[in-house]
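Handout, section 3.2

Students often ask what a structure token actually looks like in practice. Rather than define it abstractly, here is a full record for Netrin receptor UNC5. The first block is the sequence as you would receive it.
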Amino acid sequence: MHGVYIYPLDKVSINESYSSSTYSKRVCSVESLETSTNTSADSAYDQAPMIPSSSPAIRPTTLLEEAGTFRGTDVTQATLTPAGALLRLNTYSSALLIPEGAIPKHQRHSVVLSVVRDDKHHVPVPTGPRSTYLSPVVFCGPVDTKVNKPFVMQLPHCAENLSNWAFSLYSAPDNVTPWCKVVTIGEETINTPALVQIDKRYAYVLTEAFGKYVLVGESATDIQERVACKKLRLFICGPSTVPEFSDVSLRIYIVEDNPGAEERCRHCEQEIGGVVIGRSSVLYFADVGQGLVIDMQCVGGWRTKCSSERQTIPFSHVWNSNSTALHCSFTLCRTEHDKCDFKIAVQASQDLGSLEQLGALGTPPATLSISSFVPMSKDGHCQHSSSSFETMTICSVGSGTGPDHTNVLATDRFRLSKDVKRKLCRCLDPPTQKRNDWRMLAAHLNVDRYLTYFATRPSPTDQILDLWECRNRELNALQQLIEICRTMERPDAVAILEQIQPAPWV
């Protein structure tokens, strides 16, 4: 039986039966993007879950139009002052760091960070047939906000084995303007308007332009053709209680394994009264042109209504899903009404056929099983229990262990004040004969792939430290930065940093 694949789900009957070969694309309501300046808040770090309804719209398609469709997890707002601002969407592990001194004295702006699930003016990213979305679409704005130094935006991504990917960053100012490519990693020039730092699980964008951003990728072909692989996850959804006599429709969503994946599925299910009842292990999906095979087994007096318990989703429907919530459906019917030990098992794998060269991928099938219709817990600590995401930050540079819930700085304040950064810039900006200047600092922090970007800035050290501030939110990150400066044989920089963090033996 083939399924219905929806981009994304809007209105589907809980017990709807699907025709054998129907595909459809549907679009949810707009999640527009912009807001005007608001100067009413009192703190540089004020957080608000929603955009004030009194803000005037500045474009035909604005965030304000559909403000009621947003939830607190999808958007956050802060007042930007010369002291800077740090906005975070913890559910989606996205962040926006606007450094101190980015706007002139006495100015105040209302800025917003939001995740864009979809919109009625959808303009697809003009990528190739083998390109795929790797991050959520994130908006920061208003787009007419002017800053005099780059800000840093953190985007999670689901790319596996980074060396096999060619990454590109795309941007658009609003819902109606076409997307344009900002940069392809490795093809930067002195005029490139942004730097993209790709870490294992996050991308960091340094730019001065507000708007929509998304990270896309395809298999790298620079030296030899490689096979890109991304991480997906399956969520199974259905009714919150088992109907006694009617059939049951179970929907399976296949989404990028980024933070907030479960939240996206839950939002789609809210439209039809369904709930998320199960989550699979990680599914590794490779750029090989082969589709996704989903097998479902039922026991306990249930069976799939169609003769087949297998569905195959074409490769392009998974790889080119444009970050929407892809799903298929199985309809179950009772075989024995006196039994209630309901249990189903789902296994999903890519049909690699005879592609023996992919054996090295070692990609086990994704599996999930459920034995009840109880909704999954919304406890954030278990939403990604078997995923790479446990917190919104990566480990500090040099740490070989995974992220730790108890080792992350909870505050939205900056580690380094403007005064401390100014002193460090005076130390490390001037080139030295030993090269133990900002260039060595970039190397130790693993951000030296494209030094030209930093070199063209008024203060290379300042930009490197802004990126460090966003990448390293662990409690011990400052001490690690001190150790790096000590390794660089820069006691002057060590002394400056130890003024704000006493030596551990004190």
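Discussion prompt for tutorial groups: Helices lie at 261-270, 315-319, 418-428, 438-444, 451-455, 460-471, 477-487, 491-498. How would you have guessed this from the sequence alone?
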